Structure formats: structure tokens, C-alpha cells
Predict the 3D structure of the following.
Amino acid sequence: MKTSNYDFTKYRLMAPGPVQMSKAVQKALSEPMIHHRTPAFVKILNTALEGLKYVFETSNPVMILPTTGTGAMEAALVNTLSPNDHILCVTGGKFGERFEKIAAAYNIKTSSIDVKWGETVDPKVIDSFLASHPNTKAVTVQACETSTGVLHPIEDIAQVVKKYPNTLLIVDGITAVGATKLPMDKWDIDILLSGSQKAFQIPTGLAFISLSKKAWAFYEHSTCPKFYLNLKKEMQANQQGQTHFSSSVSLIRALNVVLQDIQSKTLPAWQQRVMNLSIATQKATLTLGLKLFSTFPSPTLTAIEVPDGVDGAALRKHLEDKYNITIMGGQDHLKGKIIRIGHMGDISDEDALSTMHFLALALNESGYAIKESTIEKAIQEMKALL
Ligand SMILES: Cc1ncc(COP(=O)(O)O)c(C=O)c1O
């Protein structure tokens, strides 16, 4: 089998986060430090906060937390709820379960809708739960459950939760905001949160969160302990051109590079690129004779079933060692059974094509035979879709 026309000396980070960063972002990250209590930084911060509102599609303030995405998940709960409150968590993946774990740490009581891994939640099930449990304070759900590659129907879920004035909809958009349609205000999402290492294409270390007016009203009655993650204090600091604690100057500067790019290309165009990468990857997957794992795949990543007889962990390692490409595997009971390819980074057509080409070669070398003509067909089909 001919190796390929593609370059495997270049390292490619094709995970569903952290993701490949552009040269412009890398340059911004290397700029000299400035102090965060300066007029120059006030300008940088205000620019970032405005840009985030554009991407979140909200008129509510969006706050920047110096935490990973999980920090924003925790902030969502502790700023709106109280110990012994009851919430409903949509699980069916690693990150759905995380909300339950955070809630348990604050003695918030949870019920769950345990969706089969790889499937989406049915909004009607949420509706009937809320109808029979009127004291439910919040519903938590991932827009995209990254561990399974599923996109949950957030617009429909929001329509349901909207009927219950004492219930908030908390959406983890860590692998969704920016990359796929999730307009906070239009869809009536009460809390939307995200993380820097996904569609925002900068390093891990910042989280973003926005609260609707309904969610801010919950803040006033919430008695969960909060100090570092006190969102009202954060918002008040933002109104003075500051962050509550020391600001992550370099990360926020890098964030502005990407926000500027999204605004100049427009959000729909930015999301369309992710969608094209996703559709092209899905098409190639099927042409190679492989199966998609998710029943409703998120455009932000493609989860692929590892064929019988192939060890998924060894396949990933082979792809990394020989072809310089990092993709992700499955978690928990899906370890070794699926692989996950991300579409949110600064990914060129060549990166996307090389990834599928080298994946096919790595599969061949792992005992799953694919004809050279089939690989060529998959790559040509992908090219046509990018
Ligand atoms: C959907 C989702 N939620 C939460 C997290 C946790 O984010 P972090 O690792 O930045 O804390 C991730 C991370 O990949 C994620 O994909």
C-alpha cells in the first residue's frame, strides 16, 4: 500500500479539545506581560466581554472565569441553588454525570434521566418529570456530550423548561458554544457555559458563563457556599473593567484574536466550517466501512466505533507514534471501543484529509483491511465536502 501524499512530520492535534491553535493565537500568547489593573487591559477585557456576548448570542453579560470548564459548571450550580434543592440531570455520558457529582458535593439532591450512551434525550421525558416533580429547581444538560459525540436537542428542551417558571435550564456548551448553533437568548437558555480549549481555540484555562434574568433572580436566594466562583462579584468587577481576581491577561489577549476572527467571518460562517468538517468526516467514515457511534452526531466531533478485532487504544497510539496525529478514545465502558475526532480547532482541509487518510492506513496496519481504492474514494468524497 502506498503510504501517502500527506505529510506526517507535522503534528496534528485532532482531539475534541484541547484543539489546534492558529499562528496568530500563538503569537498573542507570547506577547510581553502587562499588568491587569491598567487602562490597556481594561480595553482588552471589555473587547473580550463584548465579543463573548456576540458568540453566546445574548444581551446578558458573559463572565470569564480563570478555571477550566468544570469551574463554570460548578459556578452555575452554586450561584443559583441551595443545599437540599432538587435538580434533574440528563446523564448518558461522562460530562452529564459530572453535574451530579458537583451537586453531591454541595448536598444538592439529584434525579437523573440516564440516556443510553450514544443517544439523545427525549424532551418529552423531561417534560413529564417536571410535571410530576414541580419543586425541581434546575435541569442540567450538555449541548454536546463530548464523551459520546451526541448533540442533545437544546432548543426543544428549552421550550419544555420555559413552561416551568421555578426551574432553570443549565446548559453545558463546553463542546458547542461557537461551533454549533446555540443562541442563548433566542432559545431561552437560563445558564450557558463554555470553555476556552474548544471552539475558542486557545489553551485550556478559561471558562465562560452567562446567566439570564431568571437565573440572576435565583442567585438572590441561593445559599450554596461561594467565594472564588461568586458570579455577582465577578459581574460587578467586570462593570469596572476588571475581573474579580487577577486576570489571565495572556489567555484573554489570545481569546480576542479568535473572537475578532469569528466576528469578521461571522458566527454562522464559523459554525459552517465546523459543520463541513463534520459532514466530510462522517461521509469518509462510512465509506471506509466504519460505523458512527452517535445516533445524532454533534458537528463538533465524530465518534466512530472501532471495528471488531481492533484494539482502540492501540490504534490511537499507533496513529500518534507513526503518523503524528492525536485523536481521542472512549471513556469508561467505551474505552478501546470508540475513537473521537474533533472538528473545532484551527483545522485546514489538509489536516482533516490527512487524519482520515492516516486513520485508514493505521486501521490497515492493525488488521482491519481497507482497499487502497476505498481510501482514495473516501478522501475524494471528503474533499468535495470541504
Ligand atoms: C461537555 C463537557 N463538559 C465539561 C467538560 C470539562 O471541562 P474541563 O476539562 O475544561 O474542566 C468537558 C471537557 O472536555 C466537556 O467536553
User: Anything to note?
Assistant: The chain has two domains: 12-16+267-385, 24-264. The two ends are 26 Å apart (CA to CA).
